[in-house]
Amino acid sequence: MPLDMNLLYGMMASSGIAHAAIPFGISMAVNQLTWSHFNKLMLFLSICVALSFLCQFGLLTGLQAQTCRGVKDVSTISLGALIAAVITAAMLAVPAFIEPMRLVVSNIIEPHQSLQTAEGAQYEKILIAAAADMAKVGKDQSSTDATRSVSQKGGGLQADEYEVQTFQEITRGAMYWGAFAGAYGIGIGSLIASKCPAVN
Fold first, then answer.
1. Is 60 exposed, middle or buried (0-12, 13-18, 19+ CB in 10 A)?
2. What is the pLDDT of residues 29-87, one digit of tens each?
3. 139 band by pLDDT with thresholds 50, 70 and 90
4. Among 127, 131, 74, 95, which Cα is nearest to 20's?
5. Burial of 140 by CB count in 10 Å (0-12 exposed, 13-18 middle, 19+ buried)?
6. For residue 64, what are the contacts with CB-CB under 8 A and spacing of at least 6?
7. Is the alpha carbon torsion for 116, 117, 121, 124 positive or negative?
8. Residue 114 phi, psi dihedral angles, 5° rounding
């Protein structure tokens, strides 16, 4: 029985949506850990790839069952899912380790802030103190300004804040690149999993 292309496109779309959701869900769990950034990143990637394999295995099983009138060869499904998981691992490595590629996606949602330097932190303290003094003078001179409050935000993030930002950016990038990995993975995996064994 020939491969139903409408079914394939539907499964590619389903896989893409699932692979966008997987990084989001895993990041929420991994963010609760107090591990180092690198360890959390490795755990995040490992779980995403493992769930990708399971997701692709399930979808390719359904594809083979429909195409071959039943599940005929689990080994071809496993091979197709493995190839798809490798594609996912490669695509997720893009936002995890190549900053410009993750910022292309992440900056659409929230602008990237740079890491605060020691010199920048010193300048920031001076500017905040000066702004507070000016606000106090302004309040003394005008009663209408007495209800105003001054809110100052620095031009850079502290190291721990920067790590949080980086992980959020990786998650957004992984959702985007993972969606493509899921769709492509099913497309390529179907070339193997949808081959029905010859009937003697």
1. buried
2. 998 888 998 999 999 999 999 999 999 999 999 999 998 888 888 999 999 999 999 99
3. low
4. 95
5. exposed
6. 71, 72, 73, 76, 77, 193, 194, 196
7. negative
8. -80, 165
Tell me the residue type at 109: I
Q: Tokens for 84?
A: 């798809």
Amino acid letter for position 126: I
- Smallest Cα–Cα separation from 75: which of 186, 184, 192? 192
Q: Contact at 8 Å (CB) between 49 and 22?
A: no
Task: For residue 28, count other CB atoms closer than 10 A to its CB.
Answer: 10
CA atoms of 178 and 105, how far apart (whole Å): 12
User: What pLDDT is attached to residue 41?
Assistant: 94
Report the range out of 84-98, 125-139, 140-154 with the highest average pLDDT: 84-98
Phi (first) and psi of residue 35, to 5 degrees:
-75, 175
High-pLDDT (> 70) share of the chain, %: 78
Could you write out the DSSP letters of every residue in 58-98? HHHHHHHHHHTTS---HHHHHHHHHHHHHHHHHHHHHHHH-
pLDDT in tens, 142-158: 544 444 444 444 456 77
For residue 23, what are the contacts with CB-CB under 8 A and spacing of at least 6?
44, 48, 92, 171, 174, 175, 178
DSSP three-state, residue 160? helix
Greater confidence (114 vs 26) lies with 26
